[in-house]
């Protein structure tokens, strides 16, 4: 079993393995095997397409959490120029589970705020596996309010297993920090574009997820409680997480249908992690278009629409 | 065998042993904290607070509003907002059936009751969570009723008081319930900008999505003594950090200590205290105390 592939992707892993073997032979052998390699490549692409066109919600959750999936720190250098990271909430500390700073998107100044799970073990620990504490959300709030003052659009990248459930988190008011962000984002006088790039888990995701345009990458997931958590409550076992994922509607297609997200951004075949550069390029194009469109709008109209939309959540025909 | 067992008839004895803590239904109620057996009419007069240990027992939404608002001039708000099963959610049971069961057992259509009325003559909007309905969880109907009540407060420029008691967001409505957090927070922010007072009163328990939205956004956040409130439930935290939680963790006294709430108010003093604050916020004469 190839650990770089999820269990349902193993047929693709096998084909890719064969291609690699043939390439090795090809390089020190003058046998003409390029035709065979091409044939296998085609087969692998076809297999990938087949598998990915029929992913179950639970499989999508696994892709969204894939250990090689690109994170905020992978996107920032690929999408933005002149990145200046900023730190701290000015009250308690600097939470590395949330990255924030100013950058340029096609020359335009923007504020970027994203949740970051961390790649290496050391990095994961430093970033608390992408589970922000109150100081993380308060840093985000500080930066958003700064963006409002300097008339920069806010671009958020959502990817978290949830806000951190710990003693220190509760002591410093994790609930209040999330709630405050929801309140302020509802009226921040600058365009806000939110994109779920991986795992959007509950209040910890929503805390940087209120805005004018909500994107979800094709194989990202967004839920009010993790499928494991839901399964644990209902079936008393995490084994039933696939059923919970099915029941809750955690994928972009369903959420777009419900009017909760505006746009699904397509991923490269086999998921964002198979071609990070291509994914970043697609995302950059989308974000650029969206920033241009929202910046061209009258700010009062934009804010009225954001508010009306918030008020319409759950209605028959949400805005 | 003690001398008592010898003189008590067998039938009574065996029954008593099977259910050692059973208190006859009706006139008597046992305090869930100190186990004192309490005379029901007496307990009700004390607003369901144990006269022996001061434990604040859970009460329903209608009773909550009944003891908070003045007797006359109440009008229910947004009662026409009903729960919606947009996802056709089904686990071991259908969500639709769970709703029907909850509606039958509580007599409510969903977990929030909102009213317009007066508090010592001051017009107010008030709402209360019904914890017995699906754990007081917030889905579309709760979020929408909360929001419509807030809109009445905004239109009539009168204060809004919400008593929460909830396990959090309602997972059967998935992202729709998550978005109610954004919706309720947005309308509260609007009240803030318009200078309409919002008082969030937490009663046991307040967790999850409600805690991380409307419950912590009051101009005044208050709680009843001993109420538990927090973002993550104690079990989740214990599983995450693999250690026992300190005693009193997430109780209202802990919240006061950590600066999350303004005050802890005994149930019998809620009317007095909130009226006193709201009268100042709205520049009205100081109301007379009911409890001295």
Percentage of residues assigned to helices of chain B = 25-40%
- Regions with little confidence, pLDDT below 50 for 5+ residues of chain B: 11-18
Radius of gyration of chain B (CA) equals: 21 Å
Structural class call of chain A reads alpha/beta
Q: Give the strand content of chain B.
A: 15-25%
Helix and strand run of chain A: HHHHEEEHHEHHEHEEHHHEHH
Look at the structure and give the mean pLDDT of chain A.
95
- Cα shape of chain B: globular
Radius of gyration of chain A using CA atoms only: 21 Å
**How does the overall form of chain A come out from the CA principal axes?**
globular
Residue fraction in strands of chain A = 15-25%
Number of strands of chain A: 8
* Secondary-structure element string of chain B: HHEEHHEHEEHEHEHEHHEH
What is the average of the pLDDT values of chain B? 92
Give start-end ranges of low-pLDDT stretches of chain A: none
State the separation between the terminal residues of chain B, measured CA to CA. 51 Å
Can you describe what's shown?
Chain A is α/β, with parallel strands linked by helices. Chain A contains 14 helices and 8 strands. Helices cover 49% and strands 16% of the residues of chain A. In chain A, strands 1, 2, 3, 4, 5, 6, 7 and 8 form an 8-stranded mixed beta sheet that branches. In chain A, helix 4 packs across helix 13, helix 6 runs parallel beside helix 8 (174-185) and helix 10 (227-234) packs across helix 11. Chain A is globular, with a radius of gyration of 21 Å. In chain B, the strands form 2 sheets. In chain B, strands 3-4-5-6-7-8-9 form a 7-stranded mixed beta sheet, sandwiched between helices. A two-stranded antiparallel ribbon of chain B has the order 1-2. The radius of gyration of chain B is 21 Å and the shape is globular. The longest helix of chain B is centred in the middle third of the chain and has 21 residues, at 174-194. In chain B, helix 7 (174-194) links the parallel strand 6 and strand 7 (198-206). Chain B has helices at 3-7, 10-18, 40-45, 61-68, 95-106, 140-156, 174-194, 208-211, 234-241, 252-257, 270-281; strands at 28-30, 37-39, 75-77, 112-119, 122-129, 160-166, 198-206, 220-223, 263-264. By secondary structure, chain B is of the alpha/beta class. In chain B, helix 6 (140-156) runs parallel beside helix 7.
């Amino acid at each position: 079993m190839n650990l770089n592939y999820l269990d349902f992707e193993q047929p693709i892993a096998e084909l890719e393995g064969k291609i690699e073997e043939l390439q090795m032979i090809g390089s020190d052998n003058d046998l003409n095997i390029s035709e065979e390699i091409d044939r296998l490549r085609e087969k692998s692409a076809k297999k990938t397409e087949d598998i990915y066109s029929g992913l179950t919600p639970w499989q999508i959750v696994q892709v969204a959490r894939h250990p090689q999936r690109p994170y905020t720190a992978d996107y920032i250098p690929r999408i933005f120029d002149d990145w200046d990271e900023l730190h701290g909430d000015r009250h308690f500390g600097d939470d590395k589970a949330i990255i924030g700073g100013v950058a340029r998107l096609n020359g335009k100044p923007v504020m970027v705020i994203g949740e970051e799970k961390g790649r290496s073990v050391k990095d994961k620990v430093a970033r608390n596996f992408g589970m922000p504490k109150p100081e993380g959300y308060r840093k985000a709030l500080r930066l958003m309010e700064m963006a409002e003052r300097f008339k920069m659009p806010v671009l958020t990248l959502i990817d978290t297993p949830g806000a951190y459930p710990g003693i220190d988190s509760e002591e410093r008011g994790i609930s209040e920090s999330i709630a405050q962000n929801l309140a302020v984002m509802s009226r921040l006088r600058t365009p806000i574009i939110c994109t779920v790039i991986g795992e959007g888990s509950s209040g910890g995701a929503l805390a940087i997820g209120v805005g004018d345009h909500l994107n979800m990458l094709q194989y990202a997931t967004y839920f009010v409680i993790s499928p494991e958590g839901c399964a644990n409550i209902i079936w008393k076992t995490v084994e039933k997480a696939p059923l919970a994922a099915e029941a809750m509607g955690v994928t972009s297609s369903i959420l777009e249908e419900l009017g909760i997200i505006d746009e699904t951004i397509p991923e490269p075949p086999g998921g964002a992690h198979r071609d990070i550069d291509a994914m970043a390029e697609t995302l950059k194009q989308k974000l650029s278009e969206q920033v241009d469109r929202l910046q061209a709008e009258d700010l009062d109209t934009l804010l009225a629409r954001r508010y009306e939309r918030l008020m319409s959540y759950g209605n028959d025909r949400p805005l | 065998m003690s001398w008592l067992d010898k003189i008590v008839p067998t039938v009574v004895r065996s029954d008593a042993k099977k259910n050692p803590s059973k208190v006859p239904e009706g006139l008597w109620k046992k305090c869930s904290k100190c186990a004192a057996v309490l005379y029901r009419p007496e307990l009700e007069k004390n607003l369901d607070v144990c006269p022996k240990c001061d434990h604040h027992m859970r009460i329903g939404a209608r009773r909550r509003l009944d003891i908070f608002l003045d007797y006359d001039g109440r009008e229910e708000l947004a009662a026409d907002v009903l729960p919606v099963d947009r996802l056709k959610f089904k686990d071991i049971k259908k969500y639709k059936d769970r709703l029907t069961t909850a509606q039958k057992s509580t007599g409510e259509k969903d977990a929030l009751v909102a009213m317009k009325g007066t508090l010592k003559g001051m017009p107010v909007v008030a709402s209360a969570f019904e914890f017995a309905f699906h754990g007081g969880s917030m889905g579309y109907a709760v979020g929408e009723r909360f929001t419509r009540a807030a809109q009445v407060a905004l239109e009539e420029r009168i204060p809004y008081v919400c008593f929460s008691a909830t396990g959090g967001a309602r997972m059967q409505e998935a992202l729709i319930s998550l978005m109610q957090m954004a919706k309720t927070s947005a309308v509260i922010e609007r009240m803030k900008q318009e200078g309409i007072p919002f008082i969030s009163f937490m009663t046991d328990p307040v967790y999850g999505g409600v805690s991380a939205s409307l419950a912590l956004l009051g101009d005044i956040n208050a709680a009843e003594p001993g109420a538990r409130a927090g973002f993550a439930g104690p079990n989740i935290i214990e599983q995450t950090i693999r250690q026992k939680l300190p005693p009193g963790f997430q109780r209202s006294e802990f919240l006061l200590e950590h600066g999350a709430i303004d005050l802890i108010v005994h149930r019998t003093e809620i009317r007095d205290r909130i009226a006193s604050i709201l009268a100042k916020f709205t520049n009205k004469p100081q109301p007379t105390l009911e409890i001295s």
